[in-house]
What we know:
alpha+beta, three-stranded antiparallel β-sheet
Amino acid sequence: MRITFINGEISLFIKEFPMNIFEIRDTLDKLKIPDDKPIVDFEISEYDNMEFPFALCRRNFSADIYRLNLFAERMENLDLSEMTAFRSLLIANPESSFEDILKMTYGLDSVMIYPCSGCRELGETVIENELMPELESCPDDILELLDCEKVGQLMQEREGGVFINEHYCVTLGYEPPDIHIEIGRPENCFFRLLVVPVEEKIEQARWISLPCEGEIPSEIYNGICLDFQSALPNLKFDDAHKIDTLNELAERISQFSHDNFVKLKAVIELENIYEIPNVLDCIGRLDEYQFDRNIFDQSDFGREYLLKNIHKNFDFSAVEDMNLCDFGRVILERKHGEITSYGAISGRGQELYSLITVQPEQQLTEDISEEFSDEEDELEDFEMGGMSL
């Protein structure tokens, strides 16, 4: 399932749902939404989710991102018959809320489905089996005169029927199950490894969460890492023998505030860091970077930079609606920083909003150039004067 999230000026397209817990939390960080109130506004992509009616993909929804992830998991596990029933319910109930749509993924066996290509074929079945009360006492010679197409249309209206992929679904008898869906919050960890002692014994594989307070079992060190989930995007790890180093990193991160953790992800993105030792080194010098999580793009940064450096009596409304993208980009380049997925980050040892001034060597070069230009002007005046005598 493909989703577009919208939060104010931020628009984030996610190609793959469902996601693991770390991907969900990272998405919230990019959207600047706190994990304790994870309500997201989103649209279902109309081009990549062909199982949904077109009108549904044009709607805006709001939901807990963990419930949205559960919905994606439910969708992924529907078999062909269940998916057909689900699609028929969506078509029959186009104004359903997201919560109702989530519940529609349950109890789908109450939707009757059978092969049927259209109203004419449905009408033939209804007449042949006298499925409508009006047909029970009709003589056969009268039944033969009936318009199958119109009989099928009438039956479809009565049953709330929907035709999908050469099947007919009766939606009228469906009742949403009376269930309360609880979404528990996952454990607080930063890395998870799926480790198996021996490659041939996949059934013995188990997940290990880090940081690990107790001693890590020896069979983990000697095992094989089948899968790795990380709170730090794109971090590389495939060797269970290095789990101690990974656990050390997890313990260091666990001491961070959430703001510092997001800042670390921004620095990692800026510096293109993927190896654990480099991340540990980055943690040691995190204070050498400045981070503003409230910046969305270069224009936003340029406006904030002007606001912090311009005279307090300046009428800022003069540039309030101006596109300052190029200005913000140039300032960020001078700061060796960039706009990351999490906000604006400065280069190492730089200040995001400090005033950019002419450097001494640059000033000296400009002074020499100016003096040389003045001497040329004086010489030209002297020669021109000599010609006039």
